[in-house]
Amino acid sequence: MRRLPISGGLTRPFGLTRREFVGRSAVCGGSLWLLWTLPRPLALEAARQSTDRLVFSESEWELVEAITGRIIPTDEDPGAIEAGCVNFIDKALAYEEADQRDLYHVALEAIDDAAQSRFGVRFAALRAEQQDEVLAAVESGQLRDWPSTRASSQEFFQMLCTHTIIGFLADPSYGGNLGYAGWKTIGYPGPRHEFGGYTPEQMIGEEKIRTVWGSEID
Amino acid sequence: MKRREAFDVCVIGTGAGGGVMVRELTAAGFRVVALQRGPYLRQKDFVSDDELGTVRLFSPDQIETWRPTANSRTETGRFNYVAHCVGGTMTIWAGWNWRLRPDEFKVLSTEGPVPGASLADWPLDYDEMEPFYERAEWDFGVSGDAAANRFGPPRKRGFPNPPVPERTAARRFARGTERLGYHPFPTPMAINTQPYGERAGCLYGGACSGFGCPMGARATTLSVALPKAEGTGLLDLRPNSLAFEITLGKHGYARSVRYLDQENRREREVFARHIVVAGNAIGTPHLLQMSMSGAFPDGLGNSSGLVGRNLMFHMVVQASFVIDEPAHGFTGLETHMAIDDLHPSDPGRGFIRGGVVIEANFPQKQPLGYALISHTGYRNGAPVWGSDFKDYLRKFPRVAGAAALLEDLPMEENRIDMNPYVNDAYGLPVPRITHRQHPNDLAMAAWYEKRLLEIADAAGSQESWVPITVTEDQPMKGGSHLMGTCRMGNDPERSVVDRWCRSHDVPNLWIVDGSVFPTSAGYNPTLTILANAYRVADHFVSEAKKGAL
Q1: Are B465 and B364 in contact (CB under 8 A)?
Q2: B376 contacts A26? CB cut-off 8 A
């Protein structure tokens, strides 16, 4: 008869950086199916609505904000900066993504160093094209002296993009998507279920759809 | 000595198969204990539209391993879309609801043997299943148009609810497919288009597949079967109860189920005269394999050596496309429209078998799925950052999708066994999935991929792409349609259970879930799991009445 060893609390068996950005391996019936295969803890626990810095230093906060501003740039619509993606990432690292904290610290330092050595100023002070040049080097693994053996710069950049996108488009209760900036940008009206869902007329465009922030879309 | 509680039946798992068994057996007066891994979530617990919230709600301790062949390195992760909660994965299902075509019960006879595949006929046919399909459709309240699918199986009775309404993406799909000479029709869905029984009509709020239904409009065992079973007073439903061993008693009968009380972290044991395993095609063989004994060194009921083998997931091919008007894909259900013209097997296409094609807005129904997943194959892997990416995001309201759900061929080497190296949080060996695609699967997927892109063009797409392509190097590691690992058949050496889903080896052991499917068919499996459970329950009750159990 099998003896069942009972261990302590649940452990996180894997980290985002060791995986592909999204599983490219399979698709299945279910809109969330691949999201399902991402590590669990991308949702945040307590304090997620606070905008106090929990993990980043002041300069790291400024740097991450600048990077996210290039991942989803601001144009006629809000971008990652207006959506508060840096706050989302700060809270993610404080809680469920805590395992990634050290990687973030060393990777951010390396990115600022790269900006300094290329252009002589901190990343946040660069012009947009210069920032993109640095990020392209991170994305393609061209950065010299990458400090982490745990994750490559490509993997780190993928994770940063994922975090930024989630911060932009997840429910505002997770600390990003401030003022529905992300949903307004992409034209998603927000969770309509509590407001009565959609009528058959709305589903074929014969009636306007009211967003959860009170405007109307087609 | 403390008197041991003994039940008539212990059902392990409360999804489509187990939920119906629980309902039917309690209705017949049997005392049933049901063990379910994970919590008892109710409608009020289901988050609406919150993609992150719903992902973290279900199966937080799920951990699996996968490798393509027995000689490859194993990856650890979450590969299957399952919900460990009362009601099982049906709690988060999309609700597509199909009867299999008659030929899909007889694939070996229809096609003949295929090298590398373990094709088999089901030990029953469509006519035997037909009344149980009908019962399942009326109990679960399926919406559809009975006359609409000229390629579907014959049916004696219509659907209990009218078909689902249209959305713009579905209209465009219908227009495109008609232009190509196909015959679109509303997808039959187990979702109320009007109040049905005690359940509300759907509000079409959009957060459907992957979410628990906050109003019970989608038919699940949680909303349909289990409340009725609880009402009999004969059901002892035990959530947070993870079965890890079925013990074997004297005379070769299963004696008890040992399980972990996940809340109190204590081992418990429950005794029953019959044991029904319904833990899906991964959980079921995994539990049998963990139940080793002197009589069954390779796992309970595994004299055939087939427990865990012939794992099937279906092939799912999907195309996304952008149209010139709001598609309203984020409203309504996962799918509203389908064609079945491409379903019948035609070896002239270069492969056998086929499947249904639908208008389906996955994986892009909600913003994160669109941004993180649908983008994968966009413009041959465009960067996920910068102005171009933001332009992609702004196409969200105009994105539509089409998908094909295809019959994959069973292969004995595609299997589940216990991973000897990786344990879960409870110290149990995790399932090890060994799975890759049969060449027929890959040829079929490539052919349907082209058809989907043609449909996108005919529907007026401005740009179209295939987010994820399954190839020999990138086989499916998991799915949501888990089938095949305890196949049913008449020959005890070539199957695990008989035509009544009763173990060939252990007379009081029954398996009632997708595991028993000998082949996977080109339709979603849930209605067939439900109907088969009604069929088995009927047999169980009539045998019991005869005193033959």
Answers
A1: no
A2: no
The answer to whether B67 touches B413, Cβ cutoff 8 Å, is no
Taking only residues 101 to 130 of chain A, the set having a beta carbon closer than 8 angstroms to any beta carbon of chain B reads none
- B119 CA: distance to closest CA in chain A (Å): 23
Provide block-wise average pLDDT over 10 residues at a time, chain B (549 residues): 78 98 98 97 82 78 92 91 95 96 98 98 98 98 95 96 97 98 98 95 92 93 96 98 96 96 94 98 98 96 98 96 98 97 97 97 90 91 94 98 97 97 93 98 97 98 93 90 98 98 98 98 98 98 94
Does residue B104 sit in helix, strand or coil? Answer: helix
User: Do B5 and B271 meet the contact criterion of CB atoms below 8 Å apart?
Assistant: yes
As for the ipTM of the complex, it is 0.92
Structure tokens, B418: 């216990």
CA distance B363 to chain A (A): 4
Contacts of A135 in chain B (CB under 8 A): 385
Please give the DSSP secondary-structure letter assigned to residue B467: S
- The Cα–Cα gap between B246 and B248 comes to 7
Report the alpha-carbon distance of residue B417 to residue B308 in Å, rounded: 6
- Residues of chain A neighbouring B54 (CB-CB closer than 8 A): 32
β strands within B22-69, DSSP E: 32-35, 64-67
Average pLDDT, chain A: 81
